[in-house]
Amino acid sequence: MKITRISVHQLDLPLAKPYFLSGGRLKFELLDSTFVRIDTDEGIHGWGEGCPWGVTYLPAHGKGIRAGLEEIAPLLIGEDPRQVDRINRLMDITLPGHLYVKSPMDIACWDILGKVSGLPVCEILGAREPGPVPIASSISTGSPGEMMADIQFYRDKGYRVHSAKVGANVDLDIARITHLSENQKVGETIFYDVNRAWLPREAITVMNSVDAANSWFEQPCETLDEIAMVRARTTQPICVDEGLHAFTDMPRIHRDSIAEIVNIKINRVGGLTKAKRLRDFCLETGITMLIMETGGSVLSDTVTAHLAQSIPSVSCLGTWSCQEMLTVDPAPGRGARNIDGCFIAPEEPGLGVEPDMDILGDPVAVYQ
Ligand code: MG
Questions:
Q1: DSSP state string for 90-158
Q2: What does the mean pLDDT of the chain come to?
Q3: What distance in Å separates the CA atoms of residue 65 and residue 69, rounded to the nearest whole number?
Q4: Per-residue pLDDT tens for 71-101?
Q5: Which residues are registered as beta bridge partners of 290?
Q6: Ligand 1 mean position to 349 CA, how many Å?
Q7: DSSP one-letter string for 212-242
Q8: Residue 72: φ, ψ to 5°
Q9: Rounded to an integer, what distance in angstroms lies between the CA atom of residue 292 and that of residue 130?
Q10: Phi and psi at residue 24, in whole multiples of 5°?
């Protein structure tokens, strides 16, 4: 099987309402998403999506994906998309780094591999573990009351896991966390995502001042060095998210006991092939996971559902449904959807989701 054509589509994904990270420092209203379709000489095709969360969240942006694909895509014509490790090596040789550029290409190859195998992607990743995968809400930072109202909005959709964004100043964050923790229901998880906004001093002060049961603190500071400092002076569970860039970060997180949890964002780490390697390391070392995307439509959400479905539930705390925050749906009725606050990976071969071409429009670039 050979890749004969790679088509790149761009779609704006407006958020239903503005979203704020880190005490309002970062505001988001629109996501710039890139869809990649790979066609083969055997008539089978696959889809992938890459969608950074704006331009300020990570060193990644929508135009960057399309510029990187200009370098990578021509060299993959004629290659076998089923050989995902080889495809990844070729991409890494062609364009070192820039992992988020490669993710939609890699995902489209897994979609093809699933279709050829006649199996859903979770099963070719190794398992369809029983039970649905809980979806974590993403609660924009705000006043304690505003954040609680947002949590109630998602409770009404069945959600039992909530990612509350904090990271302003010590007093306000203690007030927020105290209010949300006091109103946390039995069987519900509220965790606090700082998105690297605290200095170690602030993290240590807040984390040692609050009583946050059944919870954890995600990416409290910018770097792994800073989080290691916090780890040594606190007892709350810590999750590394933005600080996990590539596989080589993972042995250090484990060896230095920096975090008990990692948030594997598939786009950030370079796609399913590389996320699978991280998954396996975590399973071998007892580190718990969240499986998410940096953003995107139902297509991205469905990729996370497949990887999360391949992990035993005790090791996977949940995923995220970005689609619920958008006003555009490029694949109506298809893919992983919220069922009582959970995803179930589709049963069809491949990803089990196909964009509607009338919504996606014409490609912005074609390589063949
Ligand atoms: Mg996070």
A1: HHHHHS-S-HHHHHHHHHHHHHHHHHHHTSBHHHHTT---SSPEEEEEEE----HHHHHHHHHHHHTTT
A2: 96
A3: 6
A4: 999 999 999 999 999 999 999 999 999 999 9
A5: 263, 318
A6: 30
A7: -TT--EE--SSSHHHHHHHHHH--S-EEEST
A8: -85, -45
A9: 19
A10: 85, 0
**103 CA distance to ligand 1 middle (Å):** 19
165 noted as active-site residue? yes
Catalytic pick among 102, 115, 265, 276: 265
Distance CA 197, CA 191 (A): 15
| Ligand 1 centroid from CA 219, angstroms | 7
Contact indicator for 3, 40 with CB cutoff of 8 Å: yes
Both tokens of residue 85?
Answer: 């490790």
pLDDT digits (tens, 9 = 90+) for 151-174: 999 999 999 999 999 998 899 999
d(CA 218, ligand 1 centre) in Å: 6
Q: Which of 115, 165, 274, 276 is catalytic?
A: 165
CA–CA separation, 99 and 271 (whole Å): 8
CA distances from 229 to 102, 123, 165, 216, 334 (A): 33, 39, 21, 16, 45
β-pairing verdict for 342-343 and 133-139: antiparallel
Residues found in the chain: 368
Q: Note the pTM of the prediction, 2 decimals.
A: 0.97
Distance 306 CA to ligand 1 centre (A): 20
* Ligand 1 center–CA 34 separation, angstroms: 22
The residues near 124 (Cβ < 8 Å, ≥ 6 apart) are 110, 113, 114, 117
Q: How far is CA 317 from CA 97, 150, 252, 303, 342, in A?
A: 29, 20, 22, 16, 11
What's 193's DSSP letter? E
Average pLDDT rounded to a whole number, residues 311-332: 97
CA of 200 to the centre of ligand 1 (A): 17
In the reported structure, the alpha carbon of residue 166 is separated from the centroid of ligand 1 by a whole-number distance in angstroms of: 11
Identify whether the C-beta of residue 234 lies closer than 8 Å to the C-beta of residue 207.
Answer: yes
Has 2 been annotated as catalytic?
no
The two tokens of residue 276 are 């699978």
DSSP-assigned letters across all residues of 318-329: EEE-GGGGBS--
